[in-house]
Design brief:
The protein is mainly alpha-helical and 470 residues long. 46% of the residues lie in helices and 11% in strands. The protein has helices spanning 17-32, 51-64, 79-91, 102-114, 181-191, 206-217, 247-252, 257-265, 279-285, 300-313, 316-329, 340-347, 354-360, 373-379, 385-396, 403-416, 421-433, 441-448, 450-469, and strands at residues 4-7, 36-41, 70-74, 95-98, 139-142, 149-154, 158-163, 171-173, 196-200, 223-227, 230-231, 296-297. The strands form 5 sheets. The chain has a 3-stranded parallel β-sheet, with helices on one face. It has a 3-stranded antiparallel β-sheet with strand order 4-5-8. Helix 11 crosses helix 12 and helix 15 (385-396) packs antiparallel against helix 16 (403-416). The N and C termini lie far apart (85 Å).
Length: 470
């Protein structure tokens, strides 16, 4: 039997990290077993579903590289199939029409809760309650077995057993004729040949109900793996303030998809003490049995550490390609400076995200209007004028613009003026970049370019002179 898994989000919001992790685990299991991965859009909530959310889910999956063999399927395109099977269950007596009004059901639940009882339907129409009128509205309820238990072996949780007496007769078709989530899921997984269902632990309560529907339809029951929730650093349920935002927000914030995937796979799964996993290693090593039962805490610092690792270790051409989006997003014209493949090795060591790298590299491509006030106050003092002028003259005279020649100019300036390297280097850094932080000066000036570097140093010399005369 071919292993088939699925990711089945509801398009009522963006693809967030919890959903992305579920999709990743499903995708990895299919890949590990040489199987197939299905994408299904569960859009039966007609009021809350939107095309914008569908587009965001698809964009997030594609950015993460979680490709699918089948789909995307849409539940709203399969209503005829669901209703055909609901009619079949009605004919077989495995489902029944319920004419109870919403007011009756609401009052029943309120009374049960007031009595400290579990809120549930009482089976009022289970034995053939007649309609008050021929055209009276009704829902269709599944006739859940009254006795026995539902037992399944969860890949993460182990053996789970639920008494059927704990389950009520859930609605499988609304008064408007639309089928409900729990029924649609069962039919879809059956029709699509899903063998393993990987989903969040919030679905555990749905599973015994769905197993009873599988059995009533004569359908094979898939295996289940219910993964724990993701918590924030403070132990509370993950929310927007912890980073539970759209996956594409991580792209916008400067994260590489490889870093986010590596982080998510370790957020509930492990292989020894290994922290860094290539996509190929994830596929080779992943098993459902190795998913942890306990909840995992989202740690932004760990994600930043991973992202910097991938920025430094992945092919420069690839990182540069991802980086280009951020320069464009920040309105920086990269045609006015060094090639991005030259910039990445120099700046990746100093930045945690591509967004930060782009913002920190603006001075390579654009001239700045003024120097950073604190850096200028500290380093562009009258004593800096002579070394700046001398190094500018030496740099301007170079016939070959390379890191070694630049470094020699700086060293010679310090030696001739009998100054420490810091007395030359720090004013030079502020002059060239406008601020007090940058990579090594020889590489920084190399990327800024000869003409632009000399022009900026001369501008700093003038700034120092004006300051001395004021």
């Amino acid at each position: 039997m071919t292993v088939k898994t699925r990711f089945a989000p509801s398009p009522t919001g963006f693809l967030h990290v919890g959903g992305a992790r579920t999709a990743l685990y499903s995708w990895l299991h299919a890949r590990n077993q040489g199987g197939e991965f299905v994408l299904r859009i569960e859009d039966t909530d007609l009021e809350r579903s939107s095309q914008e959310a569908i587009d965001a889910i698809m964009e997030g999956m594609e950015w993460l590289g979680l490709n699918w063999e089948e789909g995307p399927y849409f539940q709203t395109q399969r209503f005829d199939r669901y209703n055909q099977l609901i009619d079949q269950l009605l004919q077989e007596g495995k489902a029944y029409k319920c004419y109870c009004s919403k007011e009756r059901v609401d009052a029943l639940r309120e009374q049960q809760m007031a009595n400290g009882e579990k809120a549930r339907y009482d089976g009022h129409c289970r034995d053939g309650q007649a309609a008050a009128a021929e055209d009276a509205p009704f829902v269709v309820r599944f006739r859940n077995p009254a006795e026995g238990t539902v037992v399944f072996d969860d890949h993460v949780r182990g053996r789970i057993e639920i008494d059927n007496s704990e389950l009520d007769d859930l609605i499988i078709r609304r008064t408007d004729g639309s089928p409900t989530y729990n029924f649609c899921v069962v039919v879809d997984d059956w029709d699509m040949g899903i063998t393993q269902v990987v989903r969040g632990e919030d679905h555990i309560n749905n599973t015994p109900r769905q197993i009873n529907i599988y059995q009533a339809l004569g359908a094979p029951v898939p295996e289940f793996a219910h993964v724990s929730m993701i918590l924030g650093d403070d132990g509370a349920k993950l929310s927007k303030r912890h980073g539970a935002v759209s996956v594409m927000q991580y792209r916008d914030d400067g994260f590489l998809p490889e870093a986010l995937l590596n982080y998510l796979v370790r957020l509930g799964w492990s292989h020894g003490d290994q922290e860094i996993f290539s996509r190929e290693e994830m596929v080779e090593l992943f098993t459902l049995k190795a998913i942890n039962k306990s909840a995992s805490a989202f740690n932004t610092e760990k994600l930043l550490w991973l992202n910097q690792h991938y920025m430094k270790s992945m092919p420069v051409d690839y990182v540069a390609e991802q980086l280009a989006w951020h320069f464009n997003d920040q309105g920086i014209d990269v045609s006015q400076g060094p090639a991005l493949v030259e910039l990445v090795p120099v700046m990746a060591e100093r930045c945690n995200t591509l967004k930060e790298l782009a913002a920190s590299s603006r001075y390579y491509y654009e001239d700045f209007a003024e120097f950073d006030a604190a850096a200028a106050k500290k380093h562009l003092r009258p004593v800096a004028q002579a070394p700046l002028q001398l190094v500018a003259d030496k740099l301007a005279a170079l016939t070959q613009w390379n890191a070694e020649a630049i470094h020699t100019c700086i060293q010679e300036t310090a030696a001739e003026l009998e100054l420490g390297m810091g007395k030359v280097g720090m004013p030079l850094r502020v002059a060239a970049t406008g601020a007090g932080q940058s990579p090594s000066l020889d590489l920084t000036l190399l990327l800024i370019g000869q003409a632009r570097s000399v022009e900026r140093i001369n501008k700093a010399v003038e700034f120092v002179a004006n300051r001395a005369n004021s």
